[in-house]
């Protein structure tokens, strides 16, 4: 997806680790926002309120 298959050596390893870290942070924040927006409604729907 990012063209990281050609990354080699220490620089390539650091690039891959950095990209994975940024992706994890984005997913963590994104899912946190979704949980904050939709979480109470889903809990209410499942609990029958």
Roughly what fraction of the amino acids lie in strands?
Answer: under 5%
Estimate the helix proportion, in percent.
Answer: over 70%
Number of helices: 1
Write down the overall geometry: rod-shaped
Compute the gyration radius: what is it? 18 Å
**Ends apart, CA distance between termini:** 43 Å
Spell the H/E element sequence.
H
The helix/strand class is mainly alpha
Low-pLDDT ranges = none
Overall strand count: 0
Main sheet characteristics: none
Mean pLDDT: 89
Structure description:
The longest helix has 39 residues, at 9-47. The protein contains 1 helix and no strands. Helix content is 80%, strand content 0%. The chain has a domain at 23-49. It starts with 8 loop residues before the first helix and ends with a helix. It has one helix at residues 9-47.
Which descriptors would you attach to this protein?
mainly alpha; 49 residues; 1 helix; rod-shaped; single chain
Write the layout of secondary structure elements.
Blueprint: H1 9-47
Short recap of the structure:
This protein is mainly alpha-helical. Helices cover 80% and strands 0% of the residues.
């Amino acid at each position: 997806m990012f063209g990281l298959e050609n990354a080699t050596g220490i620089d390539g390893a650091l690039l891959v680790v950095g990209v994975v870290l940024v992706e994890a942070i984005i997913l963590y924040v994104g899912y946190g926002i979704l949980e904050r927006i939709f979480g109470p409604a889903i809990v209410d729907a499942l609990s029958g309120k």
